[in-house]
Amino acid sequence: MNLDGMRRFDRDEIVDVVVVGTGAGGAPLLARLAERGLRVVALEAGPNHDPADYTPDEVEATAINWMSSRFSGGDAPTAFGPNNSGFGVGGGTVHWGAFTPRPDARDLRLRTETGEGADWPIDHDELIRYVAQVEADIGVSGPTPYPWDPSRTYLYPPPRRNAPADLMLAGAAVLGIRAADAPAAILTRDRLQPHHGLRHATTNVGSIHQGERHGAKATTAITYLPAAVAAGAEIRPDAVVHTIERDARGRVTGVVYREDGEDRRQRCAALVLAGGGVETPRLLLHNGIANSSGQVGRNFLAHGAVQVWGRFDEQIRGYRGYPSAVITEDFVRPAGADFVGGYLLQSLGVMPFTYATSLVRGGGVWGTDLVDELETARYSAGIGMNAECLPSDENRIELSSETDEWGLPRATITFSPGANEKAIDDHAIATMIDLLTAAGARSTRVLARSAHTLGTCRMSDDPAEGVVDGSGRSHDIDNLWVCDNSTYPSALTANPGLTQMALSLRTADRMLAGL
Known about the structure:
Elements: E1 15-20, H1 27-35, E2 40-43, E3 71-73, H2 105-108, H3 110-114, H4 124-138, H5 163-175, E4 180-181, E5 191-193, E6 197-199, H6 224-230, E7 234-236, E8 240-246, E9 252-259, E10 262-273, H7 276-287, E11 301-304, E12 307-311, E13 326-328, E14 343-348, H8 352-363, H9 367-375, E15 380-387, E16 396-403, E17 409-414, H10 419-438, E18 443-447, E19 450-454, E20 480-482, H11 496-514
Parallel strand pairs: 1-2, 1-10, 2-7, 3-17, 10-20
Antiparallel strand pairs: 4-13, 5-6, 8-9, 9-10, 11-19, 12-15, 12-18, 13-14, 14-15, 16-17
């Protein structure tokens, strides 16, 4: 993004707020605070990308991903690299799929309704008001009316369907399952974005996970961050925070970050951590703070994201078009289920290298079998799920003894699905096989997968059960806030991006009310 003419603060100046991270958690908050006149500085570990450099080449496109190694273990190790990561101004929104279902009210009351998992200390109606604001701020397309919420409206019509989307709709029609065009932060008409300029309507490319050049896909780098800079915020790319400084009372006084090989300090009156479900707990654990509950790094959550792919007689060429153009929410609470929570389903198109990686990692396909699968990939269409995950103390992030390129201990992530997650997988797999078979698939293949990194600094009313309160403020340090998906008490069935931007605006308003 264009940082020319940006206001710059002296590092010896005590700014009102330092924000670590510029993705879905940090950027909306940064803009809101700057627009209210606060002196705010955002520190971003990655570079300031030029959209002209974005490429559909999956191998070359990893410049936008967090590629620094993490250790992943447990019964179902979480994939990182191009999955579950962002690196640069805009954070994970630069590579996200822009799939934007809203959070379901039942998911926020999971423990109250089922006795399992954890409730969110947030009112759903209040959260949805912020969700609607985000949808207007960034431009979200979708069907009006929306089948599972007839009162909902979208500003733009949905993106054009690709072949996998048409097949999912066909299968759903046969089975009597409701399915519809999916909500997506993808413009279907040109839009003049305040402080950024013209964003063009989508041309329905399938490579949006590799970055999108023309502004059709909403990222914080073309929405909230230009607004923040226009209001007087400063963004410092290539700035890796490693130390949080405190005074004798334990309150935050500043951060030390590495830039161009040198350590630099920025003093502040308040600190917001928005580095995501891995980097935020890693920083807190490294500094040994905000953890009187022992909950920092605990309760790592990953959405169940199993995919089922069907082989068809006709060519599908699923790499064309918006990848996730159709949704069903009929299984957010499926009748007669032997599990708590639920899942939603989305149609899947995929780029070739990503598909090959999924076959290896999720299907155990190697050698000549892999070559054969890739030779016929153009005849395949997929459906994927996004499923609830219950918190477990055994699933966690810890610090390893190995350090990274910045001298910080690498994160070790342990994740093993429990009985509830396995039961959801079984139900969803059967549903996806039925949908593809009803659409005419000659055969199907199941690819194991999880998605997103959540829950490792969870919010709670009781300080003994979490790291932050319902506003995102640390239970231990009153001028430390966390604003990213590490605060999720449970995973929700909805993808986290839209919800996280809404939480970011809400946390900003709570900060403004108390500062």
